[in-house]
Specification:
Elements: E1 4-11, E2 16-25, E3 28-38, H1 40-43, H2 51-73, E4 82-88, H3 92-109, E5 113-117, H4 118-130, E6 136-141, E7 146-153, E8 156-162, H5 168-178, H6 185-193, H7 218-235, H8 240-270, E9 278-282, H9 289-302, E10 305-307, H10 311-314, H11 319-330
Helix pairs in contact: 2-3, 4-11, 5-6, 5-7, 6-8, 7-8, 8-9
The structure holds 5'-O-[(R)-(carboxyoxy)(hydroxy)phosphoryl]adenosine and zinc ion.
Length: 364
């Protein structure tokens, strides 16, 4: 007899409305559908995500995304075994829209409801894509997140450190603004950096002189601003080659910090003597070739398998929420109609709160 679990997942904690269906058959997960409706256009004029606009758009689009996900999978609600929904952390209006929608569906269809921590969704993705076994080390690195976690179980995470101010993606986005490059900043700064000399400017490597895995990226952006202003004062503008050099130096500084801190996090993680050491990275910044290659090298040097899930599963999506819901459900967890939306929800409750909040709202 085959053993299957099919879950619908909903995600609406930031600026992507998403619905997906994931099925687990005899221990093997499969994404049957994954629909993501972005809101970039709605927020473009404001230079950031506007929570009220996001919440309204989620409320309008969730039903449509669910319908599309079911249709793509060729299933009806009656084929599901449960509904998983991001219950935090994130922009509260959006999270509430998702939780309300999930409650309605679960009550209407008589299905179990499972609330999922958005960060757990990211952190459990390497098990969906590559079957990583617990415990593994995870680096979440995007526009809103930057932290090292040891994933020990579906609800058991230890945070080794994280950014105390900006997330690296946020730093890339601000750097692009300073360099008059298009948004999102990461890909445009990376393209520019390819043409530049990373050693032409000396940027700081914040917090490398201090022990531990905490990071800081806001000072780098200030250093870039100062360097740019000096160039403009000297040259009466920003010559192309110098702009490329600035981008290359800035990117290298971020890469060096992430790589060195990963080395420390790996050393800490390896003390657990895992049977199959694994280091996984998720988030938009993982798309950066220089950063990705550096992380892969350090992982190999330390003897851990390096996993970088496909980009569309590294960035916000609902397949990761459906999967995290399945993982929680299998471990015996389930929520009732009293499930509440939480703006803050640290994965590791024993770790000290991070100071930074990231451009996309507090991410625990
Ligand atoms: O994970 P993501 O799509 O959304 C969240 O922030 O939750 O990450 C988006 C972030 C943006 O800040 C973007 O500039 C950055 O990831 N990013 C990159 C690259 N591609 C995207 N940063 C550096 N290099 C890239 N190639
Ligand atoms: Zn996210």
């Amino acid at each position: 007899m085959t053993d299957t679990l099919t879950f619908l997942g909903l995600e609406s904690s930031c600026d992507d409305t998403a619905a997906a269906i994931v099925r687990l058959t005899d221990g093997k997960p499969e994404i049957l559908s994954s629909v993501v409706a972005g809101q970039t256009d709605l927020h473009a004029a404001f230079g950031g995500v506007v929570p009220e606009i996001a919440a309204r758009a989620h409320a309008e689009k969730l039903d449509l995304c669910v319908e599309e996900a079911l249709e793509e999978a060729g299933l009806g609600l009656d084929a599901l075994d449960g509904i998983a929904v991001t219950a935090g952390p994130g922009l509260i209006g959006g999270v509430m829209s998702g939780v309300m929608c999930a409650k309605g569906l679960a009550a209407g269809a008589g299905l179990p409801l499972v609330g999922v921590n958005h960060l757990a969704g990211h952190a459990l993705t390497p098990r969906l894509t590559d079957g990583l076994t617990f415990p593994y080390l995870m680096l979440l690195v995007s526009g809103g997140h930057c932290q090292f976690l040891i994933a020990k179980g579906p609800e058991d995470f230890s945070r080794l450190g994280g950014t105390i101010d900006d997330a690296p993606g946020e730093a890339f986005d601000k750097a692009a603004k300073l360099m008059a490059l298009p948004q999102p900043g990461g890909p445009s700064v990376e393209a520019e950096a390819r043409k530049g000399d990373p050693k032409a400017f000396a940027f700081p490597r914040p917090l490398l002189d201090r022990p531990g895995c905490d990071m800081s990226f806001s000072g780098l952006k200030t250093a870039l601003l100062r360097a740019r202003d000096q160039v403009v004062a000297e040259h009466g503008g920003l010559p192309r080659q110098i702009r490329a050099d600035l981008c290359a130096g800035f990117q290298q500084a971020i890469a060096d910090v992430l790589i060195e801190k990963s080395r420390r996090a790996l050393a800490e993680y390896l003390k657990l003597a895992p049977a199959n050491p694994g280091f996984a990275v998720a988030g938009g910044v993982a798309a950066n070739q220089a950063i990705r290659a550096g992380l892969e090298t350090v992982s190999r040097e330390m003897g851990a398998e390096f996993v970088a899930p496909p980009l569309k599963l590294c960035t916000d999506n609902a397949a990761m929420i459906a999967w995290a819901g399945i993982e929680r459900f299998r471990s015996g967890a389930q929520d009732g109609m009293d499930l509440t939306a939480r703006p803050r929800w640290p994965l590791d409750r024993s770790a000290a709160p991070l100071l930074g909040s990231g451009k996309k709202g507090a991410k625990a």
